[in-house]
Amino acid sequence: MAKPTSDGEFCIIERYFAPLARNTAGAFNLKDDAGLISPPDGHEAVLTTDMIVGGVHYLEGAAPRDIGYKALAVNISDLCAKGAKPSVYLLSVALPEKLDPAWLEGLSEGLSEAQSDFGCTLLGGDTVRTPGPAALSITAIGFVPAGRMVHRSGARPGDRVYVTGTIGDAALGLALLRDPKSASSGHLSPDHKEHLLNRHRRPRPPVTAIEVVRNHANAAMDISDGLAGDFAKLCAASNVGGRLDSTAVPLSDAARQWLGAEPARLADIITGGDDYELLATVPQNAQENFEGECCCSAIPLKAIGEIIDPGGGFSVLGEDGKALELELLSYAHF
Amino acid sequence: MAKPTSDGEFCIIERYFAPLARNTAGAFNLKDDAGLISPPDGHEAVLTTDMIVGGVHYLEGAAPRDIGYKALAVNISDLCAKGAKPSVYLLSVALPEKLDPAWLEGLSEGLSEAQSDFGCTLLGGDTVRTPGPAALSITAIGFVPAGRMVHRSGARPGDRVYVTGTIGDAALGLALLRDPKSASSGHLSPDHKEHLLNRHRRPRPPVTAIEVVRNHANAAMDISDGLAGDFAKLCAASNVGGRLDSTAVPLSDAARQWLGAEPARLADIITGGDDYELLATVPQNAQENFEGECCCSAIPLKAIGEIIDPGGGFSVLGEDGKALELELLSYAHF
């Protein structure tokens, strides 16, 4: 009789990932080669994929719980912006040769927390070795009523442009991590610091806004690379112009404090990214319902600009209503 | 007016990946945050994900065309084994900081060739930077008539076990790449060498077998980690025993030549993996149709073993009908 295979991959899946798939009908306990989904009657499936890499998307030494949470959150964020209700996800993990069980345990716990917060479960995955830093690639799947996905390209002149939540916290949190002394020049309290760091570590895409956005927005996208650049991308995809009023951008107490002390931080706030809030453009006849329903659902919402004719181009306006000169509109990988 | 963002990622997507999505209805030219799929009436979607990492799944210096081809092929292989017709795929690419346009061009060409061979197109993706080696994570989606996905867990005592194609070529090709001098101890001709290397570089999962497998197999999986280990995994998932007759394993001329010169190569052949052929178990009453339909579709097929009662365990039999002692049944990442 042949010896059993020395299958560490099997043990990793069994121990750290199978529990995340326990309640997924089509995951077959991760014991098959593939998972199965079936959109509810009259629905389509929306699919999105995002990869996060150690040293690029999170700093070396970040807590594995936060890494797991964030890896799923950044994908769910795209589903929210498309008006799709999260259902399941696939996870590919590249792990360094030296495995740390505590790291895997933390990763699994963070994924589990994110599953609960966003209402989805694991469908399948792959576990491989890498000589480089750890990397997680997630494909998330949500469902929308057929024909109702919200596109980037639907913005029309006259639309009002909204964002959910507050902007810039995660970028300021990253600035704090990179240079802890910057807290003093920003005159930040311990609570302020904690808020900014937490927003960097734990993006919380507004899943409660999915239906409202689907019902009223002409166009939407999530804010991942930076508000200004993402707004500009939405305008380009819709072939329209846009104006972003930088004085209207919603800020947390912590961000407002820091910006007051260092006005140059505005660039971090509106171009730094990692917000994972929604940017949505809403036509005039839907604005009242959109605002009202967001209010009823306790979704923080702020109008920050407008969609204009294509000839108007895209600009970011400052205090005096004049266009700001920004070096870059958003974070660029390359 | 603000300057446009320095968005190299946009240019990479536009140039190398958008052409792969040109014919995908739900990809929106890769200009949205997500893709959209809708299974045909009465069908479900089968999803699988596999990641390949430089230095682990392909050797440094491998041709980017082959890397792109293989990244898609290894995913399509899983869909074939589940009886699902390939439709679309999502691609996440982690790229080193120093981008080589020729490498990206080759990658895109290899993906394009694979798309044509396997009948699928690009739905969406993500492009990120990595300080490590390049990595590609693909999620492939295929469709099956509802309730007809072929599982790993369906094997029953009495089933005959078949494989498609020939086994061991890719593992021997890798052995050649790692030690080019080994060709002489194997007495291999230049044609033999070329055959083995090509099988390592370009796995060709048998998409023509999808329907036949779906119609007749009790269980199936693709052979990726090694025939012996994968057969054992299928038995474990089905809670049955199995016997693999190593003398019945179908070999190419090149593999037969090498095995004749070096009988110890049998371990490479049946445990080396990277075959991306199908392993299928078929009940007695379906064997005649299964064999006949494979023959009509020119699918090379060979019976290599049988499923037995769980108490019989799993074994690999040698020339004399006695169980072989193998160090490992398949390739293990960890």
Outline of the structure:
The first copy, chain A, is an alpha+beta fold. Helix content of chain A is 36%, strand content 24%.
Describe the secondary structure blueprint for this structure.
2 copies of one chain form a homodimer.
Chain A: H1 8-17, E1 35-37, E2 43-53, H2 64-81, E3 85-96, H3 101-118, E4 121-130, E5 135-145, E6 160-164, H4 169-178, H5 182-185, H6 190-201, H7 210-216, E7 219-223, H8 227-238, E8 241-245, H9 253-261, H10 266-271, E9 277-282, H11 284-296, E10 301-308, E11 314-317
Parallel strand pairs in A: 3-4, 8-11
Antiparallel strand pairs in A: 2-5, 3-5, 6-9, 6-10, 7-9, 8-10
What is the typical, i.e. mean, pLDDT of chain A? 94
List the total number of helices of chain A.
11
Under the CATH scheme, which class of the largest domain in chain A? Alpha Beta
- Estimate the helix proportion of chain A, in percent: 25-40%
CATH architecture descriptor name of the largest domain in chain A = Alpha-Beta Complex
User: How far do the termini of chain A sit from each other?
Assistant: 54 Å
- Structural class of chain A, by secondary structure, is alpha+beta
Which chains have the largest interface?
Answer: A-B, 89 and 88 residues
How many strands of chain A? 11
pLDDT < 50 stretches of chain A: 1-6
**CATH level-four homologous superfamily name of the largest domain in chain A:** PurM-like C-terminal domain
Specify Rg of chain A, calculated over alpha carbons. 21 Å
